[in-house]
Amino acid sequence: MKITIEINGKTETFAGNWENRTLLEAFQELGITQVHAPCGGIGTCKKCLVNVNGENVLSCQTMCEDGMMVVLEAEQKAVIAETGDCYLYPADQTNRLVAACDIGTTTVVCHLLDGKTGVRLGTVSAPNAQRSFGADVISRIQAAKGSGLRKMQFAIMNQINQMIGELMQKAKQVGKVDLLAVAGNTVMEHLFCGLSPESIGVVPFEPLSKFGTMMQGSRIGINRCNYVYMIPAVAGYVGGDIVADLIAAKMHTMTSRTLLLDIGTNGEMVLGTVGDYVCCATAAGPAFEGAEITMGMPAATGAISEVWAKNEQICVSVIGGGKPTGICGSGLIDILAVCIQLGLMDETGLLLSASEVSEPWKRYVGEDENGVCICLTDEVRVTQADVRKIQLAKAPIAAGIQILLQEKDWKIKDIDQVILAGGFGSYMRKESAAEIGLIPKELVKCTHSVGNAAGEGAVSAALASEARTELEQLQKQMRYVELSTHEAFSDIFIREMSFTNSYMRSE
């Protein structure tokens, strides 16, 4: 069977055995990563649209046919947090090239470094090549069954090898990188190493490995690197990315009582002070990344990234400054905060009809086939279903914070600082997050973002043996709390579905 595919104006014909296979499966096998499938290919998110013989279809629901002509839309450039305002360990001063990689569920960042001086020779980033297998770790776990594991490992291996090759070429370097340090959540680290993450998806959520290991690059398919160091994970859903966050933010040296939040498809958090940490993870889902939202999209050109009210108008900021085509996670947090402030939504998350809101804001309230919606522009709207998705994303994170406070026997007022790590935390307005109850309002003043701390922690791990030793010690010092079996979690989760800031009630 032959299929012709046009990508970014370039046409190529591929041959394969795709009888009784969907187009999405063919894309996955071919390593074509431009097609998004946040729902994992079950047909619910409607994001994997492609043009086949002049008609727009869902690639996950369309069977391959011989002679098909498929056109993929040009991919918009994503805004990715590549670096962070973090501490870097001094280099071991070895005469070699090293590299560091942060493999997120949504994005991948790779750095090339001079192992002697610690100088960064280059950085590249891109959306994770596995995204056609689903937007969150749960969908990736499900996709790992059968041949999916091999396909996903090939996708990320190929991506990392290409990134390192690009960095070497730009830096005019030859030969091999001596050491690659990799940070990622536990599922991403499993997929990178070709280990099945299926055990993480079922009780008791135990991973096959917690890493903290050095291995030959050729053993797992990283042919451009002599050795690969996998940053240690704590549990099935608290990975090496969070341990890397801690050394990058220097949380392991702080005597102040600190809460670290890494908010993404898997919301991970750590609470503690030097040498004594409690941590947990919540299934926030992909809503904060713009996935499974009616007009949601990644933080890329055309995305509404900020929303605010001024002079009786709802104003928006668009990435790239052009016409908005959708809304990303930071914009979603903002619009919900604005809806609360303007009385467009009640505390249960119900969007009010135009007859129930004050005059200046009536023009922003519309209706679609599913009920009331908020119209930000003529093209972009936020629906009632979108609000519910954000509630389901923010409630477990808010509940997780309260569970950790209970575990430490602390109150909100006892926390000295909050550190926001990760790409989403870099762009999320903390005031909006507090307005919807994602973080306590009392902590807004002591909350700050450090950017891509996991990537910076990986840089330290690549440069310094001291950093690798510290990472392995931190892994042992972090006590994991499993929220799904915690007796208080369900009640707190239900309470946190409300948009009332319930932290006040819990004091």
Automatic annotation (TrEMBL):
What is this protein identified as?
A: 2Fe-2S ferredoxin-type domain-containing protein
Q: Which GO terms describe its molecular function?
A: iron-sulfur cluster binding
One matching Pfam family is: Fer2_4
Q: Where is the 2Fe-2S ferredoxin-type domain?
A: 1-76
Looking up Gene3D superfamilies in the UniProt record yields: 3.10.20.30, Domain of unknown function (DUF4445) (3.30.420.480)
InterPro entries noted in UniProt: 2Fe-2S_ferredoxin-like_sf (IPR036010), 2Fe-2S_ferredoxin-type (IPR001041), Beta-grasp_dom_sf (IPR012675), Corrinoid_activation_enz (IPR052911), Raco-like_middle (IPR041414), Raco-like_middle_sf (IPR042259), RACo_C (IPR027980)
Q: Which SUPFAM superfamilies match?
A: 2Fe-2S ferredoxin-like (SSF54292)
Judging by the UniProt lineage, the source's domain of life is: Bacteria
